[in-house]
Amino acid sequence: MASRAPFYALVLLLLIAGIALTMHRHLAYDIPWLPGETRTSWSIEAKVDFDAEGEEVIASLAIPGTQPGFTKLNQQTASPGFGLSYESGDQGPRVEWSKRQVEGAQSLYYKVDMLADPYAIPPDPIKPPQLRTQVEKEPYATAARQLLQAATSRSASPHTLARELIVEFNNQKQTAELLSQVKPRLEWLTGLLQQSGIAARPVHGLYLEDGRRRQELTRYLQVYDDQDSDEYALFNPETGKQGKPDNMLLWQYYSAPVLEVIGGSNSSVSFSMILQEQPFNVALSQKFEDEALLNFSLYSLPVEEQAIFKNILLIPVGVLMVVLLRILVGIRTSGTFMPVLIALAFIQTSLMTGLIGFLLIVGVGLMIRSYLSSLNLLLVARISAVIIIVIGMIAIFSIMAYKVGLTEGMKITFFPMIILAWTIERMSILWEEEGAREVMLRGGGSLLVAVVAYLAMNNELIRHLTFNFLGIQLILMAMVLVAGSYTGYRLLELKRFKPLTEVDK
Amino acid sequence: MTAQAGWLNRIRERYAHPGKLHKAGVLGMNRRNISYISPYNPRSLFPLVDDKLKTKELALEHDVNVPELIGVITEQHSVNDLGEMLAGRDGFCIKPANGSGGRGIMVITRSDQEGYRRSNGQHIQLGGLQRHVSNILAGLFSLGGKPDSAIIEDLIHFDDTFSQFSYEGVPDTRVIVFQGFPVMAMMRLSTSASNGKANLHQGAVGVGLDIGSGRALRAVQFDKPVLLHPDTGVNLLSLQIPHWDDLLNLAVDCYEMTGLGYLGTDIVLDRFKGPIMLELNARPGLTIQIANGHGLLPRLRQIEALSKKHKMNAAQRVAYAREHFSESTIQGV
Questions:
Q1: Cys staple from B194: which of A338, A498, B203, B209, with CB 3.0 to 4.6 Å?
Q2: CB–CB of A334/A426 below 8 Å?
Q3: How far is CA B284 from CA A336, B279, B292, in A?
């Protein structure tokens, strides 16, 4: 016999590839092992208020994008009568409202859903700002220089300099007071860092708190490692604490104003937000909606196709059940994979309804078929007649069930009719040739396999795993291959050959 | 605890330990398929035995005894010629050329005023026969439902020796031939339970035969040992096959003509012609082991390990099998 090594290598390869793919999806896309997990998403509403002066109005609001920690799911606006456009230029993503003539107090709404997502993939890294040196007036320039010198001597890198500078502002309160008369501390910090050749800018963050209304933006200091890299750190300009709090969403981070209103006055923006727990698959569907080509995920398909795939990907599980029950147990079925198709129908109908419906149709079908066999018809015509009879029966049972008030009975239409017709035909021949006992055995075996396949395919965990991890298919393949080379005894053979172990004594 | 123990005991009573089966050398279905059928029976040779028409042609070429062919119907429109074809025939048998597992075989023992009498005692008219032929042509009995042709052949005039052993139907002898060696044999006797058919799973009695002598070893029905024929009451262990050497040689000839390494040959004894090959099977069943009370594996392995087997001719191989696989030899060892 030929060496089995290539075979086992193939099986091993399939197993490894399957497990690797599965692990990759779990780790890279944050898909949980268990079904029913939820993901947190924030629904944030920005309300822009201003008084229009009766002329053209353009209001432009900075909006957040996908960033480390958050994935942008979707956005919408409410602004009756205003023209609307989403811009994305040097100033980063913005929403722009415009109107030819408007007067009085105006309120514009922008709503965005952000998924709390440690695996968020930001579209483009944010470039560091250009370095600009500002000339400050005396005596402020000297005061600021002192602070900078003290901080520089205690620091070693852009980040440590930023931290020490904030510490210096906190320690030398008087100098800080003096400086804040000209412009806020954050702008001094930015200016001084820029002066030292460090790319830094103020950014606007939003603290997320469930149910919070009228939340204001918080200003943070963003400091880049150096001019060419995309690595940066955030600093709280008051405390000097480094790093972004988990519940803070960066709203504006492109060196641009948060809100610009032309043709209006008293403009302000305030935020309200709520937390939502979404099933992870809903969240993932939204996440991958826009990037179909970027990743090979079923979540990039439309919802309807997703539902179809959910069932298609279950078929290998049902097939594996058939393989195991036939090869390891030795159950005989009528039609190799007929039980899988019946099990698929059970998924639609629920088990009890499905079983009763199946037995009803096949039972009545067998009776009618026994009359057909006396008509002496050719095979194709006879099976066609059986198909029409099956359809008729399904229609009649559905109507009867509906009239009686059993809406469950309507689900009988989910059965694959051609398969049922063939089942009836085969059973009928089997009955004529080998008697009722064989029909019961074969039919019972088929139903048993169908029920086992149904239980496996309808299992919430298995449905979750097969749909979310395509690598599982490779593992199933490996299992089928291994089962295909099993040379041991089948379970029922242990019973069948029992007499042989008693002979020799 | 006791309920659990009882449950365990019941399993132990009904199911054999796999290790024990292995020790008894029992060949299981999976191992038969993987280790014997797929390496020794090349797929390309299967049509030779699955298509009974081809088997018959091949047998005639190689001078292997087969039942006389009355006619072949391959087209639906020739079904009407059936009456003409059968005129003057008393007993005959209609088979699908590509049937599987004995399906679609209709045996007519004689014709009288009431019509044609089937082997199970029922009467059937010409119309019924024509319908049966139509079913065969449409592929009802063939694997995968492919269109088929119907073979009509002469009934075997079976040897009176067995009239006491069989209830209706023709008792046939199944010999497993492995690489040209007859390794195990049994006779299948139809019963009322099996409807006059010789299929074991339908209730026919299987009688294990000693390869050395052609004598009965033990008998089983529905996989359970029996001593007396359930219908005729005759002691099954008194069975002795005449022309045993001819029968084994015929079985070995079937290997020569098909080239199938793991072959089931169904042979009947005709009153006039002696052993006749009825049918070949490239996937012979495993019940023969129960009928014999022996597993097939030790014998198959012995043949596999045999070094000079390619130099042996048919007669030598039969002699080798009769010597080594005889009950007396096995018990002697």
A1: B203
A2: yes
A3: 20, 11, 15
Cβ atoms of B229 and B298 closer than 8 Å: no
CB-CB under 8 Å, B135 with A488: no
- pLDDT of A321-371, one tens digit each? 999 999 999 998 877 888 998 898 888 888 888 888 889 889 999 998 888
Interface of B with A in 89-118 (CB under 8 A): 103-104
Which DSSP string do the residues of B220-231 spell out, in sequence order?
EETTEEESB-TT
For chain A, the average pLDDT equals 84
The total of other beta-carbon atoms located within 10 Å of residue B315's CB is 12
Within 8 A by CB and 6+ apart from B296, the residues are B25, B26, B27, B176, B183, B184, B286, B288, B289
For residues B106 and B129, the answer to whether their CB atoms sit within 8 Å is yes
Burial of B154 (0-12, 13-18, 19+ CB in 10 A): middle
Nearest alpha-carbon partner for A315 in A348, A341, A354: A341
ipTM: 0.77
- Give the minimum alpha-carbon distance from B158 to chain A in angstroms, rounded to a whole number: 24
3-state SS track over A438-499: HHHHHHHHHHHHHHHHHHHHCCHHHHHHHHHCCHHHHHHHHHHHHHHCCCCCCHHHHHHCHH
Q: Do B24 and A493 touch (CB under 8 A)?
A: no
Burial A443-472 (b: 16+ CB within 10 A, else e): bebbbebbbbbbebbbeeebbbbbbbbbbb
Q: Which of A93, A59, A95, A62 is nearest to A266 (CA)?
A: A59
Residues A399, A403, A407, A410, Cα dihedral to 10°? 0
Cβ <8 Å between B18 and A429: no
Angle between helix A173-180 and helix A185-195 axes, rounded to 10 deg: 100
What are the two backbone dihedrals, phi and then psi, of residue A487, each rounded to the nearest 5 degrees? Answer: -105, 5
- A134: tokens are 């500002």
Using a CB–CB cutoff of 8 Å, tell me whether B20 touches chain A: yes
Token digits of residue A447:
């139903």
Q: What is the CA radius of gyration of chain B?
A: 21
Among B12, B13, B15, B226, pick the best mutation site for testing chain A contact (most A Cβ within 10 A). B15
d(CA A462, CA A34): 9
Q: Is B140's Cβ below 8 Å from some Cβ in A?
A: yes
Q: Which residues in chain B touch residue A505, judged by CB atoms under 8 angstroms apart?
A: none
The answer to whether the CB of A79 falls within 8 A of the CB of A86 is: no
